[in-house]
Design brief:
The complex is a heterotrimer of chains A (341), B (251) and C (288). Chain A is an all-alpha fold. Chain A has 14 helices and 2 strands; from the N terminus they run E-H-H-H-H-H-H-H-H-H-H-H-H-H-H-E. In chain C, strand 1 and strand 2 form a beta hairpin. The chains are: A mainly alpha (341), B alpha/beta (251), C mainly alpha (288). At the A-C interface, helix 6, helix 11 and helix 13 of A face helix 4, helix 9 and helix 11 of C.
């Protein structure tokens, strides 16, 4: 039925139709509306994170933001390794422990200040972690996962058995951050930087090499590329992020001990990633920002928090594995508005 | 080591449990020739390829490339020396444009070495390689996502993955399989041109007619052993080869 | 001499712990990381029946075994079956379930020193000049009987053969009409019951704590990995290796090194011979 020539029709049209039709994912921006459509989520994220601490009612909750930042970093590292390099690591606690202990040892035995211990722990710890994990690179997914789960457990028991680095007591009395604001505004920029840097990395050509290793490693080897070297590279990056988080944690509380290798640090990032949306890099960070405050609300109930996030983790893995962020992205791209034809 | 022998495979064996997949196979490849490897399914052809290129460890035997013992080298080092292979089951990046699929090989250390200096824009190099095998640049074929390309183009893309490395020896694993007659017709000139450019080829194939158009020599395998070797005509007259194929077809 | 006797007993202990895990993985190809949690749950259930509700020991045991088998089956039927095939998800999900169970138990007050299951028979006996308590002998006996019974079951009964068929080649078994979902369910129930049985036999040696759950899981994984997943002989061999290694370590180095043995063993074997010592399936390293 042809429309009347003089009459205009209205129909619903997706917001991104103009963009998608013209190019294929390569955005040729041509209007303010389109630019804002793309930028808005990113700006909201950046501003949101930067301004968030100002809205917190008291010191306790500001501390919670710091902890959330730590878990956000871990979740980011996990997601990167698992979905962009193909290494599923169930042992993020290893990074926290190594970074934390290096910072602690440097601070207590050598008396180095925080501005020195944190960078050294970050990169030295990343190097050490990569070396420790390198024999495991050839392992198939499931075996790599199991071995990474075992590493932090073994580390904590060995420290306990040998009674080194303070044994079960740990190393108390380390330097702490001068005030809460320096604590907050050292981790938030690092988190944002890591997020955007990784985002950039995976869209660059080198990201294709990493993804090749994840999806089709035989073809990558057949192209003359050493996958062990690139796996080490990816691990180093993720470990640096994790070790920074560990060193930061140690200087937040002024204490280092074997609880740095706790299962909590291994499982929580996975929960945050699954819930937030695996593979999106920003999803896991947001997942952490949802999960940690939620579990903090239940802190009085002790072990119940672990029960809660375990159940959430299972629920999402089994029933909604795409996660919240992927879901949100899908819906955002499907926003429609009325267009005159 | 005789003059012009590029690849020397000596008495290579591989067993899986009780099954002898490759049984004491030896062959030589001379520079510039095209050698076909034929045999019924399960005769060990792909296993042989995996053994030569380092994807599988050999039980016994040695492999020499350009006089150098590559028996124990891992696959990426073998490729780094210029001995590359295609895969029977291709897995391109379907969501990415065709030329992006070549970015990974262009990252290989070999590419930087043989180019002698800066690579320049990888994207441009990739598109040039694709154009050389017939991806029409004017029709924007290199920019199409791999999911939109027919099998003929995808097979050529797989070949390009090897060509990006500037190889000296390419082992093609069933590169004609799954192609229509016209697609094969466009593939054969590419193979011939590669030979003219000095690249040596070893082609594992089932499609004998097409293979015999390009192959200088043919090696026939059955049950993991080499049963015949010679010109295509000689091999097809061989009793054992006829028995292998007919016997295989009869069951 | 004492080391020998205790070594043997410890090895059987390892075998008992691992057998449930090995069965589930062997048949349904799903690593059940809730194994340790099910172990502890069975222990607490038995305690509740026995002490809180005053039911007699034997009945408590049977009741909790039935319940734990049901729990295992439910976990499979409602959760694990949906993520079948995705190995990483299976590990994470089953581990998270186990975590939820164990920490849930801790939350509901199951901590402290008061949770003890009494030994079946009190007293000790002297074997070759070494004092061994009855409970340990009973454990050894149960272990040997159980492993033999399972071996006979999977080699000579219809259901057992079906389970083995699925374990060896799932698709062939499916073509022969064996329902792989159902057998996986049975395997899970059986595996959980075996975990419970191990709990009931072993817990009287000490008290029931949630931490033990984690250790049990690690020990089970250690045996299966060292022995090679899917290998009976390997599991038995690994149990003996670990059993003796642990006894010797505790003897010479001290009790705090106990778990380190298992952990280091897992790491070392995975790095050097991931398919285990006697594995049947060798497609574990990076190979085409």
């Amino acid at each position: 039925m042809a429309p009347d020539p003089g009459q205009r029709e209205r129909r619903r049209e997706r917001l991104d139709r103009g963009l998608k039709v013209r190019t294929e994912g390569i955005y040729a921006l041509s209007s303010w509306k389109e630019i804002s459509y793309l930028l808005a989520p990113r700006l909201i994220l950046i501003l949101g994170l930067i301004l968030l601490p100002l809205f917190m009612p008291n010191l306790y909750w500001q501390r919670v933001i710091c902890i959330t930042g730590i878990f956000g970093l871990l979740a980011l590292a996990f997601d990167f390794l698992a979905n962009y390099v193909g290494l599923i690591s169930l042992g993020s606690a290893l990074f926290i422990g190594i970074g934390g202990y290096i910072a602690g040892i440097l601070n207590s035995t050598l008396g180095l200040p925080i501005v020195v211990t944190i960078p050294v722990a970050t990169f030295g710890g990343a190097f050490l972690s990569t070396v420790l994990l390198s024999p495991c690179f050839p392992l198939r997914g499931i075996y790599f996962a199991i071995v990474t789960l075992m590493y932090p457990l073994a580390a904590s028991r060995i420290i306990e058995a040998l009674d080194i680095f303070g044994g079960t007591e740990g190393m108390p009395g380390l330097d702490t951050m001068p005030n809460i604001w320096s604590a907050l505004y050292s981790i938030i920029p690092v988190l944002l930087f890591s997020l955007f840097a990784l985002r950039r990395l995976v869209t660059e050509d080198i990201g294709l090499v990493f993804r090749g290793i994840k999806d089709n490693d035989q073809a990558v080897r057949a192209s003359g590329i050493s996958i062990a070297r690139y796996k080490a590279c990816g691990t180093f990056i993720a470990a640096a992020i994790g070790c920074f988080a560990g060193a930061y944690l140690v200087h937040l509380y002024g204490w280092a001990g074997i609880s740095l290798f706790a299962l909590d640090f291994s499982i929580m990032p996975i929960a945050a990633s699954v819930i937030g949306g695996m593979g999106t890099l920003v999803g896991p960070v947001l997942g952490a920002f949802i999960l940690i405050p939620l579990t903090e609300l239940l802190r009085e109930f002790g072990s119940l928090r672990i029960v809660l996030y375990s159940l959430l983790l299972v629920g999402f893995i089994v029933f909604k594995p795409e996660g919240l962020m992927t879901y949100a992205q899908r819906k955002y791209h499907q926003f429609e508005h009325w267009v005159e034809v | 080591m005789a003059e012009g022998v590029l690849l020397q495979v000596k008495d290579v064996c591989k067993s899986f449990g009780g099954l002898r997949a490759v049984d004491s196979v030896s062959l030589d490849l001379h520079k510039g020739e095209i050698v076909g490897i034929i045999g019924p399914n399960g005769s060990g052809k792909t296993t042989l390829v995996n053994l030569i290129t380092g994807f599988l460890r050999k039980d016994t035997g040695r492999v020499f490339y350009k006089g150098r013992d590559i028996t124990n080298l891992p696959p990426h080092k073998v490729a780094d020396l210029g001995l590359v292979r295609t895969f029977q089951v291709m897995r391109p990046y379907y969501s990415l444009p065709a030329y992006k699929n070549l970015i990974v090989p262009l990252y290989a250390p070999r590419v930087k070495r043989t180019k002698g200096g800066r690579l320049g824009d990888r994207d441009a190099v990739a598109i040039d390689i694709l154009e050389d095998v017939g991806f029409e640049r004017d029709a924007y074929v290199p920019y199409k996502p791999a999911s939109a390309l027919p099998t003929g183009y995808l097979k050529r893309l797989e070949l390009c993955r090897c060509l990006a490395l500037r190889p000296e020896l390419i082992i093609c694993d069933e590169i004609f399989s799954g192609l229509s007659p016209s697609e094969i017709a466009s593939m054969v000139p590419i193979i011939e041109r590669l030979q003219m450019e000095g690249i040596t080829l070893m082609m594992v194939e089932h499609r004998l007619r097409e293979l015999f158009r390009v192959a200088n020599r043919v090696v026939a395998m059955n049950f993991g052993e080499k049963v015949a070797e010679g010109t295509p005509h000689e091999v097809m007259e061989n009793e054992k080869v006829k028995d292998a194929y007919l016997g295989w077809e009869a069951t | 001499m004492g080391v020998l006797i205790y070594g043997i007993i410890n090895s059987i202990v390892f075998a008992l712990i691992a057998i449930g895990f090995a069965l589930v993985y062997g048949i349904s190809r799903q690593p059940n990381f809730a194994h340790g949690a099910l172990y502890i749950l069975a222990g607490f259930l038995t305690w509740t029946f026995l002490v809180k509700l005053g039911i007699n020991y034997a009945a408590s045991i049977i009741l909790s075994l039935i319940i734990i088998a049901g729990v295992g089956a439910a976990i499979y039927r409602f959760l694990l079956i949906r993520i079948k095939g995705m190995e990483a998800s299976e590990i994470i999900a089953s581990f998270a379930i186990g975590l939820a169970i164990m920490e849930g138990l801790r939350f509901f007050g199951f901590r402290g020193k008061t949770y003890i299951l009494p030994a079946f028979v009190e007293g000790t006996v002297t074997v070759a000049n070494v004092p061994v308590d009855f409970q340990r002998l009973i454990i050894a006996g149960i272990g040997v009987v159980l492993i033999s019974a399972l071996w006979l079951f999977t080699h000579y009964t219809k259901l057992g053969l079906a389970l083995r068929a699925i374990a060896q080649d799932e698709r062939a078994a499916l073509m022969l009409g064996i329902d792989s979902d159902f057998t996986s369910l049975i395997a899970m129930a059986l595996g959980s019951a075996l975990a419970g049985l191990a709990a009931i036999a072993l817990l009287p040696l000490g008290n029931i704590t949630v931490e033990t759950g984690y250790d049990i899981l690690i020990n089970a994984i250690a045996v299966c990995i060292i022995g090679g997943l899917g290998s009976w002989g390997g599991a038995v061999l690994a149990s003996f290796i670990l059993g003796f290694a642990q006894i010797l370590t505790v003897y010479f180095l001290g009790a705090q090194w106990q778990m380190v043995v298992a952990l280091l063993a897992i790491i070392i074997i995975l790095i050097t011979r991931p398919s285990g010592l006697l594995a049947r399936q060798k497609e574990l390293e990076e190979r085409v």
